Amino acid sequence: MAPQTKIEPGSARPLDGFLGGLKAGFTSVFQLVLIGTFVSIGTLAHDLGFSATWVVLSTLFIWAAPAQVIMITALGAGAAPLEVAIAVSLSAVRLLPMVVSVVPVIRSEKTRPAGLILAAHFTAVSMWIETLRLAPTRPRPERVAFANGIGTSFTATSVVATILGHYLAAVLPKALVAALLFLTPMSFMTSVTRNSRMLSDRLAFIAGLVLGPLLAYYKVGLDLLWTGLLGGTAAYLVYWFRKGMR
Amino acid sequence: MTWRELAPYFILLVVCFLPHEAWRWLGIMLSRGLDEASEVVVWVRAVAVAILAGVVAKIVVFAPGALAGVPLWLRFSAAAAGMAAFFLARQSVLVGVAAGTGCLVLAELLLGG
Fold first, then answer.
1. What's the pLDDT score for residue A5?
2. Which of A64, A85, A208 sits opposite B53 (nearest CB)?
3. Whether residue B112 is found in the same domain as residue B70
4. For A54, which of B8, B22, B47 is closest by C-beta distance?
5. Which positions ≥6 away from A203 have C-beta within 8 Å?
6. Partner of A208 at 20 to 30 A CA spacing, among A6, A39, A163, A195?
7. Taking the domains of chain A in order of start, what are their residue ranges?
């Protein structure tokens, strides 16, 4: 670990960064999306017989809705532990490129490993989108704290929503739960479109929209992994050739 | 506490948390020394965006849980309406999400679903 250097006034203010992140997180449109998503996860856990404590811990420790849906449904159906571990782990592969692309944006020379490990834990689609969008507006030494502020606010809301969903499971109408599940694709589509300024990102998004369901329909193993590698690489190559021609 | 009571928490930690979190730790290791403007990061981000788009499209096409009760054409139409509203409102995520989800709920109520 790098030795702690004395922070000069005005240069690095982690607390400012963290508070700024909390504010950005609590005012983000993703608050609504997370409430909807985690109410539906709490509902699911309740219906399959998991306790409120257990599902809240899953929100805190796993912090990725798709993986939580997979583990709750698989464990609820009595799947073998190894099978569950593989399915959950495969769903988390997408987090790797997210962490690799967000860390270089927020890390500074003074970043401590603990702060970075926490930021990597908070990395999920919502936090990744908002951090890539907003962290560049902050001074670099504040960015890890800023990212962790966003992550803290998102997790806090999601924990409350998980509890709420668990307790409201019996009374929520089905049409409402369907609408809550629709918040995720709708918000991801719009926010990725808004954030994609580079040609490579735009093309990758379109490629993924087409390849994802196509590969899943033809039951290609590891469909999302291939969607990412094929779609993302093709998009990057087009961007690279276009750049070379200029 | 007995094993029966503790087992679900043990499974959460060992079967779910560790295999899941490992990818995040690996991400930190692989990002070492990478510059945010480097070509590798542009490529890796394109891969992440494509996976994300794949996840989105799969949710709409192969709807999970209660969403499966909504017909496919309606899920597509609601997504298209949301995107149209998003662009009309000068790329407002809130307007897009509200319009798309609103259309879905409204159509369901009208169709008596």
1. 45
2. A208
3. yes
4. B8
5. A234, A235, A238, A239, B46
6. A39
7. 14-194, 196-246
